[in-house]
Amino acid sequence: MNKHFSFLFLTSLFLDVFAGGCGSKMKKVQPLCERHRCYTDPHPLSVSKHPILPRRAWSDDPSVASVHEKYLIKKSAQMEIDRIFAAFDYEKKDLGWLVSNLALVISELFQTFGDTANEEFLRRTIIDTLQQHPLRVHNKRRLYRELHKASGWTPGLETFCSELKYLIDVEFIKEGIINFITDDLKRIKHHGSLKDKEEALRNVNDGFLNIRPYGQKNITNLLNRALKDYDERAVFEATVAAFKDRLVYPATAKTIISEVKAEDETRAHIVEQFKDSLLNGLIKDFELQREAIRAKKHMLEEASKVVCEGPEV
Q1: DSSP label at 28?
Q2: Which of 176, 181, 90, 97 has the alpha carbon at shortest distance from 134?
Q3: Can you tell me the distance from the alpha carbon of 34 to that of 160, in angstroms, rounded to the nearest whole number?
């Protein structure tokens, strides 16, 4: 009997510690359908069934409590955001529902954890989790606008919105650059001379992509326009990401970036510094990629020789 009682006591203690304390200590959250009345009840998603994990430290030791807090933040953010995407109907494509509920959940997370020392960790976790899902740039922009309408505006949420805006700017500029690169390749395919087509084919075989002067000028003009409206860090981060994504030749990348100039004299010095540092980093990355491509090509050639030189059967 005593053994049975001890087992039950230890089991209840284990559940109390690792579940964070159930019952009255659990944070009660209203179902989303009650707060978002433009959708019919019963709603396919209800936060009350999966409440955000309660905040409860395992120890009075601040370092241990901080680790536990980070664990709760990460699990809560991932669970809530993943659950909304899982409940989204990809056939109906009700993006208004998706964006509204994402905004509600993110706002709720900042109300729960936004006043802690781990606020930066919360912001990073939410952005990383969002990046793992197929959310297009224009829908992220809708989410940004929806978050400004959310109740419970906190300083942490305001900082998160600034970081989300920066991410949107980078992705938007990157898409514009990649579109120009794609258009240049299509133009070569349909209207280019034989020399242009041979050059494009050689670049494909070599693993790197060259952009013709016309395409280079389009990208340079795009970047010069972007510098008027966006942060220079976002402009150059998007440029480097696009060039790496499409494996543009280092010399071509250098030509395009070197032609980018800021009209505002106060920003010209900052832009030049960014150009120098990013060009150096970009060329180093390209050299590593070039070596990897050459090594892979050599390995394939050696493998084909072994097959060709095998014994006759």
Answers
A1: P
A2: 90
A3: 26
**Is 32 in contact with 51 (CB distance < 8 Å)?**
no
Using DSSP's 3-state secondary structure scheme, residue 38 falls into coil
Closest C-alpha to 73, from 53, 93, 101, 96: 53
Cα(187)–Cα(200) distance, integer angstroms: 11
Highest mean pLDDT among 177-181, 189-193, 307-311: 177-181
Residue whose tokens read 């060259």: 210
Mean pLDDT of 271-281: 70
Confidence at 192, pLDDT banded by 50, 70, 90? low
Closest of 84, 80, 83, 75 to residue 18, by C-alpha? 75
pTM for the structure as a whole: 0.65
Rounded-to-integer distance, Cα 205 and Cα 243, Å: 17
Phi, psi angles (nearest 5°) of residue 137: -60, -45
Rounded to 5 degrees, φ, ψ at 207 are 100, -15
| Pair 209, 203: CB distance under 8 Å | yes
**Which one-letter DSSP state was computed for residue 53?**
P
Please report where in the chains the tokens 């109300």 appear, as a residue. 111
